[in-house]
């Protein structure tokens, strides 16, 4: 088995890091110079495709496991980047950058974090395609139980994320801002797209680590493959504690409560619907709070309590609801 092209280091870590930095800085220069938001998320998602293509090409004669893992991360990155590009073209701008767009270092800070995100999440495929792993021959053929489980999980995650993204976008286009989506996958999970994204990354890791788990790869490469679990864990932590759930759960509920946006109905939705892990709402609604806060990951940092977290009193909230109810639908 050919061990691939050696570039800078045997694991392609420095190579992929430098490519990612250059790729992101190129798009950053465009975004900052032209105050142009539309390529920001596209630059992130498409970067995964670039890294996978380059590292797979450097392998010279990739095996089936490398090809499948590389195609999976390319499919995920390409779909995500094109969807986010389409969405921002429809909305016109990205509100996340309203306070950063004209400030060099705060805006650059987002792009630096995006570099880290791309590089870290790509680790399983990067190391799998590297000379350090390719030097071991022969390797177990693709098709082990772990490989099959990874393919199945990826398919489930890809469908869940793709369908959820499109479903919510269509829902928002057809309804006013006060409505919330509780149909389709959103009937079983408040964030099915995040759940799909997480299990996709763990599925790619499962496939990538098979080369070590089946005994084909040893030495430092064995440890390196297992260490790439940093990628899916980094993504999970990011979605659960940084840019995903914390920015949507409590702030979203607070906005609905204070603006009288169907708060009672939304509160019932929160009570019966799992925050992340899909689960039948009829059963979830009856589960003890302790089970929801632990097994189902609905940690206190996500929970909105009007008494402690609202900036208005209950009487003010009731007045807001009466005021909105008195308006015509087209004015809401």
Our estimate of the beta-strand percent is under 5%
Mean pLDDT: 90
So how many helices? 16
Instruction: List unreliable stretches of 5+ residues.
Output: none
Helix content: 55-70%
Task: Sketch the major β-sheet.
Answer: none
What topology emerges from the helices and strands here?
Blueprint: H1 13-34, H2 40-58, H3 64-91, H4 104-121, H5 123-128, H6 131-134, H7 145-174, H8 192-213, H9 219-227, H10 230-241, H11 245-259, H12 263-272, H13 281-284, H14 289-294, H15 306-309, H16 314-325
Helix pairs in contact: 1-2, 1-4, 2-3, 2-4, 3-7, 3-8, 4-10, 7-8, 8-9, 8-10
What this model shows, in words?
- By secondary structure, the chain is mainly α.
- It is 67% helix and 0% strand.
- The protein contains 16 helices and no strands.
What labels describe this entry?
single chain; 332 residues; mainly alpha; 16 helices; 67% helix
Write a short abstract of this structure:
The protein has 332 residues and is an all-alpha fold. Helix content is 67%, strand content 0%.
């Amino acid at each position: 088995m050919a061990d691939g092209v050696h570039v800078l280091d045997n694991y392609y870590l420095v190579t992929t890091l430098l490519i990612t930095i250059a790729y992101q800085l190129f798009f950053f220069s465009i975004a900052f110079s032209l105050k142009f938001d539309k390529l920001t998320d596209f630059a992130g998602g498409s970067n995964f495709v670039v890294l996978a293509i380059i590292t797979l090409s450097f392998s010279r004669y990739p095996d089936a496991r490398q090809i499948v893992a590389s195609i999976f991360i390319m499919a995920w990155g390409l779909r995500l980047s094109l969807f986010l590009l389409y969405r921002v073209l429809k909305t016109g701008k990205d509100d996340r950058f309203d306070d950063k767009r004209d400030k060099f270092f705060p805006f650059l800070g987002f792009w630096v974090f995006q570099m880290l995100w791309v590089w870290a999440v790509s680790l399983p495929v990067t190391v799998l395609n590297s000379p350090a792993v390719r030097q071991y021959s022969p390797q177990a053929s693709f098709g082990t139980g772990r490989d099959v489980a990874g393919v199945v999980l990826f398919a489930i995650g890809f469908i869940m994320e793709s369908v959820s993204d499109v479903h919510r976008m269509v829902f928002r286009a057809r309804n006013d801002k006060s409505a919330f989506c509780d149909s389709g996958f959103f009937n079983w999970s408040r964030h099915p797209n995040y759940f799909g994204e997480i299990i996709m990354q763990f599925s790619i890791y499962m496939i990538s680590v098979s080369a070590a788990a089946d005994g084909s790869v040893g030495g430092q490469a064995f440890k390196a493959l297992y260490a790439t679990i940093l990628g899916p864990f980094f993504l999970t932590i990011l979605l659960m504690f940084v840019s995903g759930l914390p920015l949507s759960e409590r702030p979203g509920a607070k906005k609905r409560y204070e603006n009288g946006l169907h708060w009672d109905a939304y509160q019932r939705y929160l009570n019966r619907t799992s925050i992340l892990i899909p689960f039948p709402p009829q059963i979830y609604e009856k589960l003890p709070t302790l089970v929801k806060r632990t097994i189902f990951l609905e940690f206190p940092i996500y929970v909105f309590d009007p008494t402690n977290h609202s900036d208005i009193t209950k009487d003010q909230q009731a007045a807001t609801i009466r005021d909105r109810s008195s308006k015509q639908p087209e004015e809401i």
